[in-house]
Amino acid sequence: MTGESPTSGAGLDALPSPLDSVADSRAAARWIISSAGAVGALLLGGGPLIAAGKVTDWAHAVWAGGGLLVTLLGVAWAIWRTSEVLVPPMTTPATLTGPELRGLRERLEAEPWYHFGGYAGDVDGLLRHRRIAAEITHRLSTAPPQERDALRAGLATARRNIARTDPYLRWLLATAHAWQVREALRRARRQTFLAAALVVVGAVVFIAATTG
């Protein structure tokens, strides 16, 4: 932090942006897609077609075709699931309170003094000032004249609190965006592992059918 207080919003700007990890996650996803595509190209090459030409009966032909189909489905599954990492997720303040970011919230709320700058104890508390400002703005349009001065004063206070918490919210949104991409990559890796198992099963069936 180079001398900044842990609760200083300016100190967050001195930290590496969480968004820096997004490019690495997407590079890993592209590598997985390229690898899966190379496997698919190999399966559609001349080798399998030559092997299939050695099949002389319908039973083995069905098994060979089924094995090749399963293998190609595994490749397509891996590419499809991994390509989701390359789609930018929509990240808004509401995203911070969603169930998909439960793990991130638990980490943040374990050290609220650092992540929320002393202005809140959790994500909901950090967003509270925006809800208050929205409610006051809505009430101002229909409030009687004698209440409007108090509402304007409350709105000014809420806006000052929003200005103080903005650096923390921007940092949390960047972290949430990177977290979503990371979770998408983790899911893609699991799906790719299952797809690889499918490819192996299909390849074994195909080889057994064309060499039997």
TrEMBL record:
<feature type="transmembrane region" description="Helical">
    <location>
        <begin position="58"/>
        <end position="80"/>
    </location>
</feature>
<protein>
    <submittedName>
        <fullName>Uncharacterized protein</fullName>
    </submittedName>
</protein>
<keyword id="KW-0472">Membrane</keyword>
<keyword id="KW-0812">Transmembrane</keyword>
<keyword id="KW-1133">Transmembrane helix</keyword>
<feature type="transmembrane region" description="Helical">
    <location>
        <begin position="31"/>
        <end position="52"/>
    </location>
</feature>
<feature type="transmembrane region" description="Helical">
    <location>
        <begin position="192"/>
        <end position="211"/>
    </location>
</feature>
